[in-house]
Design a protein that fits this description.
The protein has 3 helices and 11 strands, in the order H-H-E-E-E-E-E-E-E-E-E-E-E-H. By secondary structure, it is mostly beta strands. The protein has 2 domains: about 1-30, no CATH class; about 30-185, Immunoglobulin-like (Sandwich).
């Protein structure tokens, strides 16, 4: 390795560690915002038959299992995105938490806002009825995470980490009437 390149890399690493927020998040245990196969605890895997609908939950969890969130929240912006590897999801129905107001959509970003401070151990944001469209049976990773800064009651924007869910798709994808464009496209990947 060239000495100048090595020293530049070291400077970048040091800047990240000293910069407020950047390096700090690497060493803290952060609250978690993501998808789960359970509405009350983080469950990271769900097995489904292709072409059949199933349920996922968008939730905010504490930094560890059983730990409270640790922040009084007002606004939680969240979005669902694919992490790996070639499947698409159709969102068939969304049931939002009625305690919050919601603006947006799960695939482009939802801003879930409360009229009062929410200081809880767990926060359910939405229940999603979805269908996976995968080119073949296998494991596909989807996640939800912050779409923007989560806002606390005092106006601070704490760091949150996203949470994935592994969708284990079984069977073959077969096109039939009523399939979405995403499901048809997935057949040809």
């Amino acid at each position: 390795m060239h000495p100048r390149l090595a020293s530049t890399g070291l400077l970048v690493l040091l800047a990240c560690l000293v910069q407020p927020g950047t390096g700090r998040a690497q060493f803290e245990t952060l609250p978690r915002l993501g998808l789960s196969a359970s509405p009350t605890a983080y469950v990271d895997t769900v097995e489904v038959d292709q072409g059949r609908s199933f349920t996922l939950y968008a939730c905010v969890f504490g930094p560890e299992e059983g730990a409270p969130i640790g922040h009084s929240l007002v606004t939680v912006p969240w979005v669902i995105h694919q992490v790996c590897c070639g499947a698409s999801i159709d969102i068939l129905n969304v049931q939002y938490n009625p305690e919050l107001t919601h603006a947006g959509s799960p695939l482009s970003g939802v801003w879930s806002t409360s009229a009062e401070c929410l200081d809880r151990e767990f926060l359910w944001l939405a229940t999603l009825e979805v269908r996976i469209n995968a080119p073949e049976a296998g494991d596909y990773l989807w996640a939800s995470g912050p779409a923007d800064g989560v806002v606390e009651c005092g106006g601070a924007t704490p760091w949150f980490q996203g949470l994935p869910v592994m969708i284990k798709a079984r069977g073959e994808l077969v096109a039939d009437d009523g399939q979405s464009f995403g499901s048809i496209k997935a057949m040809f990947r």
